Amino acid sequence: MKDYAVRGLITWLYYKDLSGAQRFYEDVMGFEMVVDQGWSKIYKVLEGGYIGLVDESKGYHRASEKKPVIICLNVKDADAWYEKLIFKGLKIEKKPSESIRLKIKVFMLKDPEGYVIEIQQSLLGALSI
User: How far apart are CA 96 and CA 82, in angstroms?
Assistant: First the structure.
């Protein structure tokens, strides 16, 4: 019998300045690069979950000013992530706040080329993962 199980998921993001994105995801977010293809870099976010950074001049797509994607990281402690990112010098417009409707604590930031990153903590009874 064939095994059709998915082993992982990579979300590919396209950049004009790959090295700037690389510094952000390594130095600010703290992710580990697990594959370096030269024109693309793959970072482990969690077991089986990866973010791929691609040089737009070599990838399938081109970088675009419009970024209709949100990278949502569901974390154990949103306040700890907020403090870590502030310590790294990142400008975040507002502190983590609770959504009563979704039962999450959340804040958002942008990477160097404008992709939105949502840091989300599930609270008791959350309507999220």
Answer: 7
Rounded Cα distance between 53 and 12, Å, is 6
Helix (H) or strand (E) holding 11: strand 9-15
Sign of CA dihedral 106, 108, 111, 115: positive
Q: Give the per-residue SS3 of 25-62.
A: HHHHCCCEEEEECCCEEEEEEECCEEEEEEECCCCCCC
Domains of the chain (ranges, CATH numbers): 1-64 (3.10.180.10), 65-129 (3.10.180.10)
Displacement of CA 34 from its chain's centroid (Å) = 15
* Residue 14 structure tokens: 């396209």
Ordered mean pLDDT values, 10 residues apiece, the chain (129 residues): 89 98 98 98 97 97 94 97 95 92 96 96 93
For the CA atoms of 117, 114, 109, 41, the dihedral, rounded to the nearest 10 degrees, stands at 50
Name 127's Cβ contacts closer than 8 Å, sequence gap at least 6. 101, 102, 103, 104
